[in-house]
């Protein structure tokens, strides 16, 4: 997870997360990862927040409050 979290290349990061999810699924048959399709932001001064629906993942590493 640390390697995937630190990976700056989006394609490589996706590959690492895919491998992690596959390993979790292989190791724990009763494991389900929940990924909500909506994430609410309740502060008006949030900057650089990705609009939901543009991609299947939400990267908030560059989001900040002004």
Helix content: 25-40%
Anisotropy-based shape: elongated
**Number of E strands:** 2
Describe the strand arrangement of the main beta sheet, using strand numbers.
1-2
Radius of gyration: 14 Å
Strand content range: 5-15%
Q: Give the number of helices.
A: 2
Largest β sheet strand count, sense and barrel closure: 2 strands, antiparallel
Residue-averaged pLDDT: 76
Poorly predicted tracts of residues: none
Order of helices and strands: HHEE
Number of domain modules: 2
- Backbone structural class: mainly alpha
Report the end-to-end length measured between terminal Cα atoms: 29 Å
Question: Key features?
Answer:
66 residues, single chain, 35% helix, mainly alpha, 2 helices, elongated
Tell me briefly what this model is:
The protein is mainly alpha-helical and 66 residues long. Helices cover 35% and strands 6% of the residues.
């Amino acid at each position: 997870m640390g390697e995937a979290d630190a990976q700056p290349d989006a394609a490589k990061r996706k590959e690492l997360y895919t491998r992690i999810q596959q390993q979790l699924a292989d190791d724990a048959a009763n494991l389900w990862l929940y990924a909500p399709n909506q994430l609410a932001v309740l502060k008006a001064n949030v900057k650089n927040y990705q609009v939901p629906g543009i991609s299947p993942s939400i990267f908030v590493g560059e989001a900040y409050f002004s």
